[in-house]
Each structure stands twice: as structure tokens, then as C-alpha cells.
Amino acid sequence: MSAGAAASRLGIGVVGAGRVGPVLARALAGAGHAIVGITALGVDGRERAEAMLPGVPVLDVAEVVRRSELVLFAVPGSELPDLVTGLAATGAWQPGQLAIHTAPEHGYGVFAPALAAGVIPLALHPAMVFTGTSLDLTRLAEATVAVTAPAPVLPIGQALAVEMGAEPVIVAEEDRAAYAEAVSAASEFSRAIVRQNIDALRALGIERPGQIVAGIVRAAVEEELIAGEPDPEL
């Protein structure tokens, strides 16, 4: 399959109706793809699926895979290996099917049990914090997507990231664990610092401490990001 084929209309099935899956499906639908089904557990998942993907049928995992040319797995990384292995054991995979996951810690190797069936594996991780709402579609336009895939199909992953509205960044298979650690640390550390400073200002009796912290943090982050960019003249 060529990168151009990735841009054509695909039947996409989504496994997982947390904050990530429905948003990425909505973005890909906006690029012209057809969402053929989604799995959704619990009331929250079903409500989110209906809000983001109205009219898309809620199906079980096996049926989503059966109907799809591209299967998007938006589930915790800890659940992914057993899920992929279970589908392989039941013969659910189809030759030429695209299989994508969004877990930062895994590369495409997690799809090894499906390769014998002719599945095309890709790992796409959007580096952003999701709300699970349409607000995330705007955030995607400012985000990057870590793309990891075998070299012949890497352009497909890049094309799909662009169709989501984001900028693709290639991460090597052997670097996924370090990448996951870095993005996790950035998120957790940022949250901890913000929370600590808001609590400190609130203890002083200052109203709307979040507004103060937001201005400082945004400015500091922007300065560091500028400082970290390579000098184009060098």
C-alpha cells in the first residue's frame, strides 16, 4: 500500500472509546474516511462515542476488526499485547489490514502475532493531553504524532498523522520506551508544578491563583522551547 492509498477512503474501526479513540476517529472522518464501528464499555464510553461519532455502531472487538480496513486501537498499552494475541488466536485478522495503536511505550512490534496474517503494523502516538471532546481537534493542529513503522509503510503512518491534523515525527522502534518515558515525565512534572504553585498561592488567600500560574508557566515554557530550537544559521 502506498502513502497515496492511505489518503483514499478507508473503512476504519476503533477499539476503545476513552478520550483518545473517538477524537482521532472524528479527525480521520473529517479527512474523508468512513468510521465503520467502535467498541465502548460503560456509560461514559457509549456517551462519548455517540457525542463524537453520532450514528457509528457500537460493536464488539471481533466485529470491529472484521468490518475494518484499518483498525485503530486506542487502549492502554498494558492491554494491547493480550488483545492482539487474542485476535490472532481466533483468526480475526485479515491480509492487508492496517493495524494502528496509540500507546507511547510500544512500537509496531506489539503487532507481531498479527503479522503472519498479513497485517500492516503502525504505531501512532499523539503527544498531547486529551479531553475526549471536540476541543481536541483544535489541539491536534498544534500537536505532533510519533510515528513508528516498518520503513516501507512509514509514509502511510506519516500521511495518517497529517490527516489527523498533526505533524508526524518519526521515532525508531528501539526508542519507543525512552520516548514514552520522556513524554510521561513532561506531563506529570508539569502537572505537579502547576498544582503545587496553585496550592501555595491559594494558601496565601490569593483569588484565581490559576490565572497567575498560567501566565508564568506559559511564558517560561515558550522561552525554553525557543531556546531549545536549533539555530538555523548554524
TrEMBL record:
Pfam families with a match to the protein in the record: DUF2520 (PF10728), Rossmann-like (PF10727)
Lineage: superkingdom: Bacteria
Gene3D superfamilies assigned: NAD(P)-binding Rossmann-like Domain
Residues annotated as domain DUF2520: 144-223
All residue ranges annotated as the Putative oxidoreductase/dehydrogenase Rossmann-like domain in the record: 5-126
PANTHER family in alphabetical order: CONSERVED HYPOTHETICAL ALANINE AND LEUCINE RICH PROTEIN
Protein name: DUF2520 domain-containing protein
Naturally occurring in which organism (per UniProt): Leucobacter manosquensis
